[in-house]
Every structure is written in C-alpha cells, then in structure tokens.
From TrEMBL:
The keyword Zinc does not apply. Keywords: ATP-binding, Nucleotide-binding. GO terms for molecular function: ATP binding; protein kinase activity. The keyword Nucleotide-binding applies. Residues 87-347 form the Protein kinase domain. This is Protein kinase domain-containing protein. It comes from the Eukaryota. PROSITE patterns: PROTEIN_KINASE_DOM. GO terms for cellular component: plasma membrane.
C-alpha cells in the first residue's frame, strides 16, 4: 500500500467518500449527515431542550402509571417469575465486573438473558421512564429489551443470542474461527447500529461501549450491539447528558465511539485483544505500518482474505483512531463504504 492509497480512497483534505467510484455519492451522504445533525437535540436551544424533556417525562409518567403497572413496549415480570425462569438463578451465562447474566425460559416461550440492575438509587418513576426509553429502541443490530422486574430487586430481560459474544469467537480456541466475510459483515452490522443510535433516535444515544464483549451473535451470526441505553452500567440516568449536551460534548462522544469502532476493526483483523490500545494506535498511525499489514492478520484466517479489503479496513481503522481534532470521519461514511466493499466483492 503506497502513500497515495489512503489519499486516493478518501481524499484526506476534504474528506469525501473513499473511492473514486464512490465520490458521486459523497454529496448525498454529506447532506444526510447535515440533515441528521440538524435534527440532533444538542443543536436546539437549552430552554427548548429542557421544556421538551419535561414534557416527554410527564407523558411517560402518565403512561407508566397504569393500573397493571405495565409499560407499552416491554413486559413487567415479577421476582417470582424471574426466579422460576432462571431456575433459581442457576443458569448463568456470564459473570464479570458488570454483574451476572442469567439465561431464562418463560412459560410464554420467551428465551431471554436476565441482568440484575445493581443500583437501587433511582425512584420508581425515573426507573420506568428509562426502561421505556430502552424498550423503544428497535433495530436489527441491537439486542432488544423484552422486559423488566421492579421491586426489592430490579432486573432487565433482553433477547437471548445463541452464539454468545464476538469476543468468544475471536479468542476461544475451542470455537470455530470466523471467516473473513463474516468479520466484514459484523463490522457493517455494528456500524449500522451506531448510525441508528446517533442519527435516528430522539434523543440520540451515545451511552454504548463498542467492544467485542458487547457484540453478541445470533444463530445466523448476525451481530447485535448490547449494553446500549440512556443509562450507565450502574443504572444512573444519563439521558440528561444526552439531551442537554453542547455541540462540543456531542463531537467528543462521537469521536469516542468512532475511535472504539476503529479499535474493533483492528481486533477483527488481528484476532487479538488490544489491551495496549495506545501502542497499537501509534503503530497504525506510522507510515511504515503498510509494509507489515499482512503479518498482523489473524493466523486463523490463513490466506483466506481479500488483500484489497484488508487494506481498506486498515485505512478506516487508521482514520478512526486519528487524534487530530480536524480529522473526524462519520459513522454514515464508514457504513456506506463498508457496504460498498461487500457489494463489490459479491459481484
């Protein structure tokens, strides 16, 4: 890969799309980004944001206070139902710093993953509001919230994914290695989920961590982003920060997600957990990295990968992990380019 390849693919100065064949689509994508940004809550006046949020909260509280205690988008389970569905909390799927996740089988046929909410500090109304906001998120590449339980203990019930996490498939030697095409498709799936959260949700959702442990795979290896929401891992409301954030705050959050996506691309390529991200990022930003790209490919892939696609993915990863403030690539640009790569290779 010569020094002009990156410039040829994306035009570093003006940041059009990546290839000459894609430049015709650049204005459309740019217009999409501008229209999406114009709809962003963070571009509204502070007073309007606060008034709209209060109105939305009032409406949600009224809808939450139904006689049955149910929410329109999700199912309300009792503690007894959760306990029975998880076989007395004996069907453990995962246990780690963020808590324990249990597999659950409910009488109505729902198979779910149950996560206990560690924090009990939120009031009931605020808890219901945030659960409903989570329940409204609906995208093929997001793990769907199916239900909740509110009482002495609080639980969230999500869709169960058959194949576990991407991290398992990249790092567990007992798992069948993912082929190159599947890895490229996973990158596309995650980019599509991020575009939905940032450009098609009102308010936009930035409370998500993009890493292989939070990317789950269903029975068809369709990737789904998990741990997404308006709340953090301790279930403290963070929707306030989403709604009242300044334009600079929005750009900073967007940069963080783009950076994480770049690191994810590197993990898909290398099959390695990038514990020392700073060292990896420094390496990929160096000019001589082009001469060693094939040495870093996951050995499980052998020679079964497309060299041009590898080169393109590394260029995207390089752009995503740039530290300069004026070199920001957008999620829609990444998504359209990756989709174009997959369509081109299918011809």
């Amino acid at each position: 890969m010569d020094g002009g390849t990156e410039s040829k693919l994306i035009g570093l100065g003006s940041f059009p799309l990546f290839s000459s064949s894609s430049r015709r689509a650049a204005p459309a994508v740019s217009n999409l980004c501008r229209r999406s940004s114009a709809r962003n809550w963070c571009h509204r006046s502070g007073m309007e944001q606060r008034l709209l949020r209060r109105l939305k909260a009032s409406i949600l509280r009224l809808r939450c206070r139904s006689p049955s205690g149910t929410l329109p988008f999700v199912e309300n389970f009792t503690y007894k139902e959760i306990n029975k569905a998880t076989n007395g909390f004996g069907m453990i799927l995962e246990s780690g710093p963020q808590g324990t996740i249990y597999k659950a089988r409910f009488p109505n046929g729902l198979v779910g993953a149950v996560k206990r909410v560690r924090s009990q500090q939120l009031g009931k109304d605020t808890f219901f509001e945030n659960v409903q906001l989570l329940g409204r998120l609906h995208h093929r590449h997001l793990v769907r919230l199916k239900g909740f339980s509110e009482g002495k203990y609080r639980f969230l019930v999500f869709d169960y994914t058959e194949n576990g996490s991407l991290k398992d498939y990249l790092h567990d030697p007992l798992r069948t290695p993912l082929n190159w095409r599947t890895r490229l498709q996973i990158a596309i799936d995650v980019a599509a989920a991020l575009e939905y959260l940032q450009y098609f949700c009102d308010p936009p959702v930035y409370d998500v961590s993009v890493n292989s442990n939070n990317i789950l795979l269903d029975e068809n290896f369709v990737a789904k982003l998990s741990d997404v929401g308006f709340i953090d891992s301790d279930f403290n409301c963070s929707s306030e920060s989403n709604v009242t954030c300044s334009e600079d705050d929005t750009k900073q959050k967007h940069r963080r997600l783009v950076f994480q996506f770049g690191v994810l691309l590197l993990e898909l390529i290398t099959g390695q957990s990038l514990f020392n991200e700073a060292e990896i990022v420094q390496w990929i930003q160096e000019s001589r990295f082009a001469y060693s790209i094939h040495k870093m490919v996951d050995t499980d892939l052998g020679d079964s990968y497309d060299s041009k696609e590898l080169e393109s993915l590394l260029i995207i990863a390089r752009l995503c992990t740039k530290t300069e403030n004026d070199t920001l690539i957008s999620i829609p640009q990444i998504l359209r380019y990756l989709q174009g790569q997959l369509e081109h290779s299918a011809l």
